[in-house]
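Repro:
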Amino acid sequence: MNHYENNSINNNNITYNNNIIDYNDSNEFKTKNSTLTVHINNQELSFNKITFSLGGHNSRAYSKPGFNLKIRGGKELFGRRQFKLRGDASEPSYMRTKLMCDIHNKLGLPSISANYITLYINDEFMGLYILTDAYKESWIEYVYGEKDTTNLYKCEYCDLLYDSRNDFENENKEASDNQELYKFLKAMTKAKSSVDVESIFDLDQFYKEIAIEYLSSSWDHDQHNYYVYKNPQNNKWIYLIHDFDLDMCSYSDQFSECINYDFKNFSRISIVKKLISNNIEHFNDILKEIVIKVFNPATLFPRIDEIKSFIRPYVQLDKTLNDNGEYPGRMNKNDDTFYSMEQWEASTEFDESLIGLKQFILLRYRYVCKEFSIECDPMYLDENMNMNLTITETESLYPTETEASSFLIPTSTFDLINIEATTTTIEDTILPTSTSIFDSNIDSNITSLALDFTNTEITTSIEDTILPTTISVLPTTNSILHTTNSQLNEPTGTLPPISQTTVTFKCLSEFVGYPCCSSELTTVYAKDEYGEWSYDFTKNEWCGLTKFEDSSNQDHSGECWSEILGYPCCKGCKSMKLTQMDLGDMNLINGVVLFHPVVKKNK
């Protein structure tokens, strides 16, 4: 879920009986006796039937494991019922999962989405997590409209061949007939080229996924980490990949080999060789389109900056020792994987020691442009390019229309944010905004989710058990109210009674319900139309740095937006209560809408 609320991140509360989890396939934790409270955009949503379990496989070996969450009882959260809370402890930037989901959303590919949350378990702060949705029956229903599908299969270690048929796991646990899958795998096994399966397999979608895997130097999806699903709308199977934390060279200590990974070696993968070799020109066209549209520095660098600015305060909290001298969420004492704030900063920039995201994207872009003879941006092909340059003009990474596979969350930075149960970002210029839509893009506010596992009933055991959980999503605030056409076209000419109370503002943030920063808070984490913002970690809230200068005594004819609707500007910013909440772009403060003249921003 991409969700910024009050420039905060979703909070998830989960409680464990013991801080140690042994990595062992036989050790599981799962409880069906939990509750979930979601705090999002100043709203509270409660769910009484929650299944909460230890997630991941190899990731359990890391100090900060992930979790799975399922909402039962026919309830949903933004159209989804099942989510993953990813720790991504092996990946220092916290961004690879988010970026890969966003790339899929940008291209309109069916995919999970990602957002950021802070997690609490039984009121114990567990740190920053990446929230994603999951390829489950509810996802299929949301995206494709098919309820209780019996044709969604998970592959952990298998080829798209008949010999691997027993390694596919049907996500519908009540389904027993796998003949549709077997028929598909037989056809894939017998096929000599793409022509033999084009009527039963969505080749264009497959080519796009393979192109993304190649561009991101991915290795973790070959015979692994993918699903197949038969779309009843066209009777074609589709290929769905997931688990992106090891993409973009995260896994490799051979940086040069990762950057210079050529397609000749990549296409040795049997299924790739079989389905692409006779259709290489079409595949090349698809790859070039992806490079031009999204896999390039001009598009991805600003996105990295936005995400980085948004999550920075939460990364800082994630790397701050608690009262017990421990870092949040580090439950597995057998692993000491940890990245400092300095390493986090470096991992997103032009750093080779930690394989910085920008460094990888830039060098991979140059290599692919040359390998496939793509007419790429000369600025980024210049090896003398200033690595510290600031990109200001570029196409938004996010679509302006909702794609069927994603949640949408409007933010102050993007037209729409696409999140499929997955992510959020802050930029050096993103502020509190409120929105109640789920998206895989970044939202400038954060919500809180709380999972409460009281009287926990453990269905499978782990020696050091995990207990009741609380999940909280950090809040986001949007201060602008939407205007209805009828109200715009038919002004009454009469204003409601004005309160005699004069509202005095000291900083611009107070117009949207946030306090001014105290004198010791000077670090700028975000900027928007309400000036500069800092973050108070003690109070866990945003505060404003930009002072407000009242211009009500000046001649502001034509400067006050209400004059367009036939209403005068207020003198001294008197407040008035309105019965309607959608009368236009007015400031809402504690239930009071203010008509006010043009605001001057002064540092």
